[in-house]
Design goal:
Elements: H1 25-34, H2 38-56, H3 63-76, E1 83-85, H4 87-96, E2 100-103, E3 106-111, E4 114-120, H5 125-128, E5 136-140, E6 143-144, H6 150-157, E7 164-170, E8 178-183, E9 185-188, E10 192-199, E11 202-209, H7 216-230, E12 235-241, H8 250-259, E13 265-271, E14 278-281, E15 293-297, H9 304-314, E16 319-322, E17 330-336, E18 342-351, E19 367-368, H10 435-446
Parallel strand pairs: 11-12, 12-15, 15-16, 16-19
Antiparallel strand pairs: 1-18, 2-9, 3-4, 4-5, 5-6, 5-7, 7-8, 10-11, 13-14, 13-18, 17-18
Amino acid sequence: MKLRNGLLLSCVFLSGLVIGTTTSPIRHAWGQEAGNDSTYQQLSLFGDIFERIKANYVVDPPSDKLIYNAVNGMLSGLDPHSSYMNAKQYADMQVETTGQFGGLGLEVTEAGGLLKVISPIDDTPAFKAGIKPGDIIVDIDGHSTEGLALNDAVDKMRGAVGTKITLTLKRAGVNTPVVATITREIISIQAVKSRLITSAAGDIGYIRLASFSEKADEDIRKAVATLQKQSGGHIHAYILDMRGNPGGLLDQAVAVSDDFLNSGEIVSTHGRHTQDDQVWYAQPGDITNGAPIVVMTNEGTASAAEIVTAALQQNRRAVVLGTRSFGKGSVQTVVPIPGNGALRLTTALYYTPSGKSIQDYGVTPDVKVSDTSKPQDQFADLRESDLQNSFKNPTGVPAPTLPSPIPLPAVAKTIPDKPPASWPAFDATKPETDFQLQMAIKLAAAMNAPGPSTASN
């Protein structure tokens, strides 16, 4: 089934300045049309407030700014992911989905008035500067982010290539502010990276999927073909690393899931209108020929990445290792407004093959492995459920942990849930310091080919 286009962060009291009432032209027009209709009476109130601000605010505010803030306030009050994009922001979004844009390379969201990093994008300036999932951005170039709208924060972090920006961060387990000065670059996202890993059981194909841009499926297929050629067609198992993958395009999530499945439901969506109710199924053609798969997740694994994780886990196709994912189970539709940007509106929730929603709760790994042995503070585990106005899980109760869809090898019981205190500090250039990856290699080497694809219930 073909996806519809666009599916996808001292008070002053004035007294005596206004005596009596004035009839706002906006309010008057709406009032004439509306009669006693309560919706239009509220629109009349908006027009009245707009005119009073224009007449009496300490400086004359630009009308377009007032309208922009009002529209975004209306949308952000619905959920964390609905928003209005002006023409420039809409153009930026369209560029981002192609995999190349200017900036720092950060996926951020707003949570409880805080600007929080979901994940840095691999090999970008933010990634190289050591910014981590869960970091709270408290200052941008010395200006507090408190009360700053998400779109405005993103605009501040963008800028001319070669210019510098200084971020002040609050990091879990660190008592002093972390300051990072970063040079903006053209961000060319390499959504997929791959390499062969040698193990006693045979070659393991490691695939890093960083985002679901418009070529994710194509790049996954190329990576698997390259790995198979390099190994002479003898790959024992695959590791699909989606840690810190913030998601992206729904059609790419469906296509990537289908790459590793021969049959079974991938995902379904259900919304207010019947046209938003859809189901996608896998077609024959597992590109790995049934080799075992370990999927790696963490708290930065979100949205489209969670669709793939749940589809492979619940169709008895992969074992999931890491920490619980972010828990974003909603679908946004982008509605262009000719000449005035676009509306990003939540139109549906998606459901995994088991019929469960991951909204709020995320996907629970079969083998839980943290990347740190340090105690975490209250911000370290911030997820979708912590975002202001986030949807509640439609079932109203925590999604039950499904039994492991694939029998775990005996070695799984020997894998610790966190690195020992003596484990070396993580260095992105040294895979041997990546504790979660080393445990995934250990697990993948011990796995055998799974049985037929059948979703758990």
